[in-house]
């Protein structure tokens, strides 16, 4: 049990035991499905846990030169890299650090593919099967007019040198959504599947969610593999590795009441430290809090940036918050640290790992020099 009073505030805290529970699930899917599962850094680039992740995965995937280099240097293997656009400025670094590279368009492959092929890098194309279960347009790569991936009408023939195809249309999805995505891929791109070496099914496979049916996922992958036995199947979940493995610890620094609205002012920011809450939007869980019932006081959580909308609500507490109390947000490891900003120069949360032994290791603390160096 983590003693959050002994954790510095603000701080992201990863629970080592919860991470290991997730890795056991991922290992089972790898073992029983025969598919490769690689870590998507876009969800969590916490490289201090790379040695553990590397033991329970088949590599890592990058979306930029910086991520590719981090995989190459800290994960101990070249990256599977996909980015919407490569440039003359970053392509050399990406090729140096990658052994698979996926291109978003035929024009990008024509421009940079020959350089990759000369280095023996396996090249792929991102396709758009024109199906996605994602309802929020901000996160839906298959909306009409999407800039992400090649639609079937644009891919009349497979260019020479292409080893694989890649699609990414899921987000915290279930196995039945993968089944529908694969049906769309076979319908629109099936003529190519027995002519390529690998199919990357992207991320969004939330196999560590308590309600996810891993048996169904394994059956879907086995069935697809039986239909296309020459294909390497690759999944690159991001959230699944660190789903519900940690927290963002904050402190109530003030109580504001205005117009009947109670707000606990925190030393963290939704805009800076939990941007998905505002973008999706979604309401995060807080330890010791629940949805308000009739007659209970509704509490907002207020962020510490000057953005007017830097707040979220509403929660109720068994014991009403007071200045000095810890507010602990749950499930704050994936898509949090990687999306933080230093807007307003607000204090950046520290990063810690809660070990199974009960010890807490502070991995990183941030200060003025970090802010200054980003602004120079």
From TrEMBL:
Taxonomic source organism: Candidatus Alistipes avicola
Domain Orn/DAP/Arg decarboxylase 2 C-terminal intervals: 15-332
Record-listed substrate binding positions: 276
A single MF term (Gene Ontology): diaminopimelate decarboxylase activity
Enzyme class label: lyase
SUPFAM superfamilies: Alanine racemase C-terminal domain-like, PLP-binding barrel
One of the GO BP terms on file: spermidine biosynthetic process
Upper lineage: Bacteria, Pseudomonadati, Bacteroidota, Bacteroidia, Bacteroidales
Listed cofactors: pyridoxal 5'-phosphate
EC number(s) given by UniProt: 4.1.1.96
CDD domains: PLPDE_III_CANSDC
Protein name: Carboxynorspermidine/carboxyspermidine decarboxylase
Catalytic activity reported: carboxyspermidine + H(+) = spermidine + CO2; carboxynorspermidine + H(+) = norspermidine + CO2
InterPro entries: Ala_racemase/Decarboxylase_C (IPR009006), De-COase2_C (IPR022643), Nsp_de-COase (IPR005730), PLP-binding_barrel (IPR029066)
Keyword annotations of the record: Decarboxylase, Lyase, Pyridoxal phosphate, Spermidine biosynthesis
Family: Belongs to the Orn/Lys/Arg decarboxylase class-II family. NspC subfamily.
